[in-house]
Records
---
Amino acid sequence: MELIQWATSPWGQEVPIHLGWVLIWVFAIAGAVFLVGHAIWAGFFAKEETFVEPQVAPGFKERLPAKVKRHSLTARVFHWIMAVSMLVLLFTAFLPLVGVQFAWVEWHWMAGILLTASIIFHVIHASFFLDFWAIWPDRTDIADAKNRAKLMMGKSAALPRKFSKYPFENKMFHMAVMLAGLAVIFTGFFMLYRVRTPFLTRDPYIFFGDATWGWMYVLHGLAGVGFITMVMAHIYFAIRPEKLEMTKSMIFGTVSREHYLDHHDPERWPVSDETSAAPGSATGD
Amino acid sequence: MAVFRDVMPAFELFQPTSASDAVTLLAEHGSDAWVMAGGQDSFDWLKDRIKRPKVVVDLSQVSGMSGVRDLDGGVEIGAMTTLTTLVGDPLIRERFPILSEAAGVVASPQIRNQGTIGGNISQDTRCWYYRGGMPCYRAGGNVCYADTPTAINREHAILGADRCVAVSPSDTAPALVALDAKIVIQGPSGERVVDAEDYFIGPGIDITRMHVLKPGELLVAIRIPATWAGTDYYFEKVRDRPVWDFPLVNIAAVKVVNGGTIERIRIVLNGVAAHPWRLAQVENAVTGKPADESTAAMAGEMSIEGAFPLRHNGYKVPLMRNLVKRAIRGVQEA
Amino acid sequence: MPEFTNGNIPVVTGDTPPVRGKLVGQDYATPDMVAKVTGKSKYSEDFRADGMLFAKLLLSPYPHARIVNIDASEALAMPGVKCIVTKDELPGAADYITDLGEKIEADKRSDVGLAMEPMYQGEPILALAAVDELTAADAIEKIRVTYERLPFVVDPFVSLRPGGPNARTDGNTWARPEAAPGEEPGPLDVVEVKWTEEDFKEYAEGKMPMGKPTDEWSFGDVEEGFKNAALVLDETFATPNTSHQALEPRTCMAYWQGGKLFVHVGSQSTIQTVPAVARWMNMSEDDIVVISEYTGGGFGAKIRGTVQIVIPAILARKCNAPVMLRASREDEHNIGGARPSVTGRVKCGFDKDGRITALDMYTVADNGPYARNGDYSNAATMVSLLYQPPAMRWRGITVLTNTPPRTAQSQPGGMQGITLMEPLLAKAARQLNIDQVEIHKINAPEGKARFGPPSGAGAQAYTTSCFMKEALDSGAAMFNWKERAAASGTRNGSKVRGVGVASSTFVGGSRGFDGLLVIKPDGKLYIQTGVGNLGTGNYSDSQRVAAEMMGVPWEKVVVTWGGTNKNLPWSCASGGSQTTHATTRAAHAAATDAIAKLREIAARALGGRPADYLVGGERVYRRGGGASMSLAQAAQRAIAMGGRYDGHELPEDINKITATSAKNMAGQGLMGVARDNYDQDGRAFSFVAAFAEVEIDVETGSYQILDFLAVADVGTVIHPSALGGQILGRSMLGIGHALGQKWVYDQHLGIPLAKRFYQNRPPTILDAPVKMQWGALNIPDPETPVGARGIGEPPVASGCCAILNAISDALGDEIFRRAPVSLDMILTSLEAGKPVTEPMTAHV
């Protein structure tokens, strides 16, 4: 199995040029195995997790609106733009490599630019208008993750707390997506110099030597095949019944009061008692 | 490992005597196999040690794959028919003189004696970066060396480029597309027939191949329907040397002109893109119009819309425009 | 009309009656003709020796690098692989002691065949010998070389820019260091020259920058000349780099036998290859045997064989087996030599009649990485001769680049210099409204024409004779110039025709070589020659002078050539257009010596004084009839008499190689052996006027040559059909420079893109104009006994420039600024109304 494709540079040196595309199948199959494995585990073996019941002020539950605001419209629009561009990127990247031939390059770089633009927006938006730290695992998450793992394996451990706005798994996924995303965006940006676009002069020699360029293509490919697995997992969880409420929130913006109380710790994710929070308020988003 | 560009490396040579044996061999060896017809393209690749097939299937001994025969007022041409045969074949000369003219300007007399029609339309591009063994897009890499600030791309594409700017070097291909020929392909799962226009593909679709033949498939024949038999035509090849040279641009047009009015027409150029470039919109625009200077000028201008010249191939734009003009109104005499 | 033409119109021209004897001036079949047309002739590559190994070259992938490590262990472990050789095992160039005892110091920076600091992409680094080519090729691929990349440059002007890269670590040009007052400048050295941004300010407009030169000379008052001019033109033009493209690649084979080195190699000079190999191998000339019966073209790149011969020689010694280095076409691109591109800027003043008043010329050449190539300087010398400017200044620089080494190619420097001038001259004629032939005539050299830089005493060298004007007149008449010029430029639909004329010149001969012949008792005349046989026919043609002088029918002449084990004399190299001049003189000297000896023998045998006897009709006979003896009898007597008659005593002034050969042949018959000691007033140059008609299609830019004529002033015609072949063949070489032959490099990668025939486009036989004519004036040169001069080189520039001038005559001056003129230049320039292709970027 060829993990990296090598070629001879114009100056006779062995340089990497691409990831070994057999890894498309490796990552796709790995994704599928995980999905099936998880489905079997979840269906037959998983025990329901128990959490520490959070302490809330009396009347808190009653004062909660029926729908708890989770994602602002801006955040939702961002998510779906990113999702569409990601899917376009994945399909335009990998379909031709598995035998479905079409002119993919323009779609790919345009989707890449859309993705980049949306992510730049997201970084700014999340940094200055949202609770920037909401998506990052905190100490509680890490301590709880250990405990949950122990409990899952039948060992004794302290009960974990309920989640903040984003469950620990969500946060980890976001981190993986972020790393892979930065890799494809960083490498993809330079690759724009290697195709014909209306805004850059094509110059494959700019910035790097043959070998460095080659490693960038390898990294781009690796992140790309990584996305195959990640997107498969993401969609799988999105349509799992127990997560459907969260998926709906990415469409409608809210989760039900019950969902909120079942899964989240109001102390870690405080919400206001109004049905809709003002845009940008730290609590609502 | 040092790069060495001389002496063919060893390979296993098969010389099947029938097309079906050839197909069986190709199916057996898949992408390890290299199909060789006249060898004019193959030997370069092999001697340069750039393409290194394990198996070469030489078609020179296959019977029944060469010659021209009548097919309902059109012709069927065996893929192994030499270009010299096409130049002189009475049936081709009578019905499709554009093809014998196109075959007659390929390379040099010696190469025409050896080269086949199947090979001529299936040959690889002559981009000198690619042929130099560079790891470009077409070779599976991630660069086009021919479209850089320092690249010498005088012979490259002005149209249809997608990362790769190589051009199809065939002289007969545009004639066959103009004649609406059908390409007969045999493969492990039987025969399929594709329009000549669809036989050739650009880099957007597949950057590493110039035609739709897949490993294991064999081009066995070319069928030209009677549609354009005996019609008026225009063919011109513009090249640097009058002999032994690939086209910079060539044009093949077939037309029916009645009372000075263009009734139907097909115009195809090569050397401007990675595949024969058909001017379907121009054809529509000039149909029903008089075959005169103003129609020619309009067609010429229309043909170059969207052309994107590189640093050294800007001349192909006026050249293409002028050739299209000529295809409509003919060469200007005094 | 010229005396000789392929139109067969024999009309005597000039005052001196032409030499035309039974042999001289007659067509005949050369001794090798049947072997050549039947394929029996054996070139170096056709030889096989028992146990012969094949060598292959590992080439540098970088345009400039230093080799850090070579790991050939895997290759050497392969079955069938015998050994490798790198530069470290080559002897390297040795100092050379000339005949006169003068020591020529070897340039330690010259190309020795292999490199540890490769200076161009494709430079051989090592050679490997194996039992067959496939094994050798597979083994080369298994060698791992580690390189340290070094800066490189493939464009002279890039190197000249401030801060531009140098091709060599020690500099970018050759120059003599500036001498202290009153002292001689030191030897040539590699130095760094950079020009200023200010120098480059007109570069973008296509005007060649003229920064500090390394060489310059002048004569006359140039400024005054410009002041008096009615028209001053200032033009930049560039000529292409072109490979020699001999059909025979430089394959060579070597083996050792009895301590002697035997080499089979294509060479322009069989005999002169011996001292060359001796220098490269650092061994005695006595231990070297060169076999070179047939050479498939040289054009200056095989003058004394090729330096690569040391590779199979060393491998053969190391592996103890014969070794053949079989060169591919790509190897030819790399090591086969090339003409340097010369970019020039010429400022030229004309009076109202078209006579040049002053000429200021600056040439910049693309030197390649090794020894100084003199083309940039020769260019100016030839221009000074051909156009006879009353005042001229030349400045020049030859810039080192990381491209294959340059070698003299047919009309080295002359071709480029004349090509820089001719389009300018044609433009001047149009602006001054003067006929193109007339402007060539008014500036043409004549008789003892002066040329080149003045010597220390202020005197210029001059020619032996020159009939340029007559050649122009003859050609104009044959070509029907006036009528065709009047119709030039007329549009016919999309077609337009133009006619062009160009003149040219180059060195037409050298002297001082030896002749060696023996009349044996079988009555035959055995003539030895050491020139190479590369298709010109000279090895045989010139010997007809001796046969003619001695009255021996050609059937009784045996010419021996092609192997230094065959007792060859020290002969001229077949190159530089020296050969006909030099070898006819040597033949004349040897025949004169033989005739003198015959007369002495006859006088002794038959009575009377030697002066009473004449030689002719295969006999020595007494003036006015009476006693005579056959040459066979005289040969017999010569053997009996011994001493100087049969070669046991030899003249002291002949070359030691001739002496060795003569000694070997001593006692076989009557020997004629002598050095060419004939006086000569002036230096021999030959001249050509060429005429062409082209038809250009303005809708495609393509053009074809309808008609071509070249008329030569080469003195006495020796062998008309061979002369015609040379005139038209070399015109084609020049026409190739006009039509499309060139190098192409990617400047970022420093890598050649056009290495194959179909990519660098030398003209093929089917590119030759359908109608091609030649003529020769046949006016003997007064300064050489036979009257004959060489012709190989001069037709090159006139062939190229007749085409260039015909194109501009049809389309005007705003079309091209460099050669070759390809259809894209024509088309885009016509579209834009100005020359679009910029002239100076190298290798586009």
---
Amino acid sequence: MHLTIGPITCSIEGLTEEEIPLNSRQFQTEGQEADICYTFHEVEELPAPDEHWARIFERPDIQVFQHGALEARKLAVGNMQAAYALYQERDERTIDIYYLNTIKSQLLIDTIFVSCLALERHFAKKDAYILHCCFTHHHGQAILFSGPSGIGKSTHAELWCRHIENTHVVNGDRCLIYKDKEGRYWAGAWPVCGSSQICLTEAYPLKAIVFMGQAPHNEVVPVRPMQLFKQLSSQVTINWWNKTQAGQALDSLQHMLGKVNMCNYACNLTPEAPKYLYNYLREKEWIS
Amino acid sequence: MKLNKDLVLREVGGEYMIVNPFSDTVDMTQVYSLNETAAWLWQQMEGKEFTVADLVAVLCEEYEVDTETATADLTELCQQWIAAGLAQE
């Protein structure tokens, strides 16, 4: 079985189509050559990475090991006592995933399944990044509402859908940003969508990233590039334990800052909020 | 003293920031910002052992500033860098 997500096609062995989550299943393709080959192994006990692997990073939900340029990860829910899978690279494009037989049914949860693939590591090599945002389509164009959880991204996107015609949400929580061969930025589908339950497999040219804030009056707040850069990089998934990749990611995001229109929008929850921003984006000719 | 070798100086739109990629909880909205002079001093001292007097010497050579003012300012700057974990004594 092959899954194509943005610029990467991966083959999945060891699981049947019915054993992968519904959203991820939407990305199934045929006939494309795989960039990465994953083999899932059901085990009673997780193997430990051997002595060649050095542990370089630890958090309650992940342990990262390094062996030359290769990486292994032990994944857990909450703490390492509850580790459920081991991701281990055989080479750059061949990966084994060992998972506990007791969690097999949970592999049907997109977040669990996608975490096993460590995709952000492979996307980074293709200059593609996952942004925490509400990915909204308007008239063949992508507008991304980004910002910390609870700031009102989805609520604002809902207001757009209600008050601005030809608008719908593509993914309520995440978006894959990548470049085409001509260097143009695209917003693409991602199989994890948080609590939004909206996860469409659509991709559109990226026209604007809007960092959301709350305020009694609607206003596009002028900010310096550094502020936008901090906001952008704090909402992108970056493997900070890999210093080279983290540096490359920040370089890429800095490049994106120069090419993609971004702004800060502080707003309320009235029908005027989407209209104000819509007019601003049109006046600036960021969207058509 | 010595700068923390894991840190990376980055310039965005004429402003400077210090990022620690090895921090367990990288919060990009809370990263340390430097003004242009502090960033220039940072670049001069990367990978070297240095004292406040070394900073004063390079600063006074590059900028028109008297030694007394430079010493006071750079003593404070070094204290800030140490307190923020950017440098070690």
